[in-house]
Each structure stands twice: as structure tokens, then as C-alpha cells.
Amino acid sequence: MGTSSGSNVNHQHMSKMLPPRQQQQQQPPPGSLQTSLSLISLDPHTSSNAQEPRFNSDNIHESPTESASSRETWPTADAITAKKMVNGKTENDCTEQSVIRRVSNADKITLRDIARERVDVISEKMHDLPDEFLDELKNQLKTILEGNGGSQNREEFLILQKLVQSRSDLTAKTLIRAHRAQLEILVAINMGILAFLHPNISLSQTSLIEVFVYKRCRNIACQSQLPADDCSCEICANRNGFCNLCMCVICNKFDFEVNTCRWIGCDFCSHWTHTDCAIRDGQICMGPSAKSGTGPSEMLFHCRACNRTSELLGWVKDVFQHCVPAWDREALMRELDFVSRIFRGSDDPRGKKLFLKCEDLLEKLRGGLAESMAGRSILMFFQELDTDSSTSLENGEGGGLIAPQEACNRIADVVQEAIKKMEMVADEKMRMFKKARLALDACERELEDKAKEVAELKLERQKKKLQIEELEKIVRLKHAEADMFQLKANEAKQEAERLQRIAHAKSDKSEEEYTSSYLKLRLSEAEAEKKYLFEKIKLQESSHTSQSSNGGDPSQILTYAKIRDLLHGYNIPSKTDSHPNERHNFRTNP
């Protein structure tokens, strides 16, 4: 027997679920059990408060005696978060109404319209409606599914569900054209599950369609393709939406209880059943030993899926041995109550002892006994029960000798049980070996990939190194060119300075030569002018002499004589004695 429903193992739908007994053999120590098996906390307060009122399309009229174990429940965190979000939207309704775009009565649609009208027509209308109006439609359906309105909400839900389930046009092809909110509402109505409307739960359009047409498990935590594990049993083949990994064979519902006697798993087909449902339907009863089919009767579980029987005492012992350390007071009392109800009608001496022990511990726990003491007490009881069983096998039930045939049958049972356990251990070792082999192959592939990456990095590094060396060569070449150009620039500068000095020297020399030639020209002009004046004076003097002899003016003759004396005494200035103004005039007026 397994310790819990197959749906409650993390990602159980991703791998084939082992038989419950084999799961029990693979249980880790108590301290690590919660990590490997639990989807939610083992806190009983969490488990008990995780339930939300639900309608179920497969079992609308629930019996008043039906226990909570046959109701679909959801994790507490999701429920609380969803309620907070709904409450938050309710508190903000007043402020949001001021900004919500008004929708005319002609454009408005109702839940009945969605359940009754064609998919494409409603989808087109919903595309034109604001998101606030669509959220309001979802909130209306949430209120109906929560069942807080009593019989009125229940009747409205039944009407909506009847409208949806009576339609033949809701197929995978037509639902592809549905609006997202429209599809969520249709799935929630068809399945009777509030979780599909929660804002924090988002499934793909394809997943929602598959859930609607019963091709995928409606359990959000499971989401296995149906039939799960390709099971070909009559129940999985003929019951729409049934998932053998997480649902009860009898009530077709699921919950998130783990590490508990609340679920019973079949040793052979791994289908699961609520303990309450099994008790109510008479699937738990006395019968011949499940191991040998002979000998004294014991309390057995009859699986409705495969019609085989599994013994219950060993299953209860395994559950308590693995889970008692993790249970608190309320959880322990609840589990003891489950065991007490399972073995209440037992005629087997060991079953009777277990029933009386559970009743005694329940009374003591109600009287204030510590849960740790009660847990140790029940574990010691199971040890004593095993000891008594071994003693009875050796000495017989009545303390006398056992018939040879019966002894052989019991020895065969023990051998078969040992072989079965060895086979399960071998299967588990093989599974672990395959898993390790796959991990090793993955590591080898990863090492090969890393080696390729390292080789590529080395090649890239070599290329970068070559590029750096090439750049360094270019830099050195550019530095050499710069030095060469600098040297040429210095030589050109020196040459320019030399040429400038030569130019200045030539300029000064040419200036001096020009000045000298100019002065010489002026001197020749002055001499020519002197000759001219001298000749003129001489001519005039001769003419005056002739006039004076004829009675000319002596004063005029005297004046001419003075001029002549002046011309004789006039000296032309040299180059060095030239007047500055003349030099200036020479430079400016060549």
C-alpha cells in the first residue's frame, strides 16, 4: 500500500507511478519523507482548511455521510491568495466603477448566454467588452461555485452545467476560436472547479481545451494526459476525465492530502481510493489472506479497478513508521481515527488489537497525552505485533504444532514475500542504475560540450593573440614612421632656417647694391646738373661780361660770381654720408 495518493507526489504525472507497496519500500527516513512525497505541508491545520466548497459534474448529489476525503480540494496557499485577490477586487469596485467604460444593455452578455450561445458569436462580443466586465462575469461564476448563496446558487449552477453539457458543438475545433475568458468560464462550469477562474492560475489555451474534452486531468497539480500512464483498464477507458494518478476510483475526486491513511493504493494496479469511500462502499472487509489465499481471514481492501485484494495491516504499519514523526497532535488523532474505522469490524486477532490500541490512544490523546508518547506507543505496538506474528508462525496459533502442509504454506508465503521484496529492491536498484547511467551520459555529453567550448575558446584566444601581435607590429611601424617624419620635419625646419638666413643675407646685400647704384645715379645726375649750371653760368657770365663792358649792372655781375664760387665749392656726398631721408625714399620709392 502507498502512503498517499499518486497525485500528491511532485510531478507524478511526468513518470510512471510505482506500485504503492514498492513506493513504501523506497521511502526515505522519516526526516526526509516530506521533501520527497509531499506537495503541501503536513500541518493538519493546513490540510483541514484547504478545502473549498465544490460541485462535481460526476457526482452532483452527494450523500450527507460522504466524508471530506471525497471532495476536491486545493492547496491552502492558492485558496488564500485567490480569496485575497477577490476581496481586493471587491474593495476596489467603488473606485473602479468611475473609470469602467459603460456597456450598453445590447452589448452585455450573461453566464447563461456563454453557456447557451455559439462560441464564435460570444467570442466576438467578448472581444469588444472591457476587461472589467469580463472579470465581473468571472466573479459571478465564482460566487455560484463557492455555494455561499445556498440552494439558489446550486440550482443556477446545475442549469449552467446542463446547458454546457447538452451542447454538441463544443469540440476542440470550435473551442479554438473561443475568447480566453469565455473558455475559462466554460471549463469551470463543465468541471465545477473554481480554480480555473483564479487569476494566479494560468493554463494555456490548448490545456484548457484538453481539460474540457476530457483529454487532460482536471487536477491543476497533475495535468496528466488521459488515460494516465496509458492505462487500459475499464475505469480509465470508460470514465470521462478520470485520472488514476490522483483521483479516487469510487468518487472520481481528488485532493492534496499526503502521508496519510486517508488514501488507499492498490498493490497491483496502483489505482487510488479514499478510505472513507472504500468503507462506505464495502471495499474494506474481512477475507482470506491476500498473500496465500488460504489460512485465517484478515482485513483486506478490494480494488474496484482490478478486482484484486491488498492487505491493510502492513500498509498501516508502513504509513505510521514513515510518517508519525512528522505528524502533529491533530494529524495523529485523525490518522488513528482512520485506522480505527478501518479495523472496527475486524475478526482477525491482530486487527482487533490494532483497533483497541487506536481507540485507547485516542482517549489518552483527548485526555492530554503528548503526541510524541502516543507515536512511540503505536510504533512499539507494531513491533510487538510483528514479534507475536513470528512466535505464532513458530508455535502455531494455539501454541501447539503446526500441520506440515500449513507450515509449508506459511514458509512459501514468507519466501514469496522475500522474493517479492527482493524483486522490488532489484527493480529499484535497476531504476537507480538507469537514472545514474542517464545522469552519467548527461555529464559526459556536458563534458564533451565543455571540451568543445574550451577548444573554441583556445582557438579564439590564439586568434586574439595573433591579432594583438599584428596590432603591436602596426603600432611599432607607426611609431617608426612617426620618428622618421619627426626627423624629416626637424631637417626641413633647419633647412628652412638656413634658407631664411640666406634670404635675409641676400636681401641685405641686394639692398646695399641697389642703394649704391641709386646713389651713383644721383651722383651722376648731380654732376650733370652741375655741369649744366656751370655752363649756363659761364654763358650768362660771358653775356654779362659783354653787357658790363657796355655799362651793365655790377651787382648782377657780383651775384653771378658768387654762384660760380658756390658751384666750385660744392661736394657730392658719399654712400655713407647719404641723408637718412634719401635712404628712406630709396626703400619706399625704388
Automatic annotation (TrEMBL):
Residues 433-509 form a coiled coil. This is OBERON-like protein. Residues 1-12, 32-58 have a biased composition (Polar residues). It comes from the Eukaryota. One of its GO terms (molecular function) is zinc ion binding. Residues 247-307 form the Zinc finger PHD-type domain. Transmembrane segments: none annotated. It is found in: Nucleus. CDD domains: PHD_OBE1_like (cd15612). The lineage of its organism: Eukaryota, Viridiplantae, Streptophyta, Embryophyta, Tracheophyta. Pfam families: Oberon_cc, PHD_Oberon. The keyword Aminoacyl-tRNA synthetase does not apply. Residues 576-590 have a biased composition (Basic and acidic residues). Keywords: Coiled coil, Metal-binding, Nucleus, Zinc, Zinc-finger. Its main location: nucleus. GO terms for cellular component: nucleus. Probable transcription factor. GO terms for biological process: maintenance of root meristem identity; maintenance of shoot apical meristem identity; regulation of gene expression; root meristem specification. InterPro entries: OBE1-like_PHD (IPR047578), OBERON (IPR004082), Oberon-like_PHD (IPR032881), Oberon_CC (IPR032535), Znf_PHD (IPR001965). Residues 1-74, 571-590 are annotated as: Disordered.
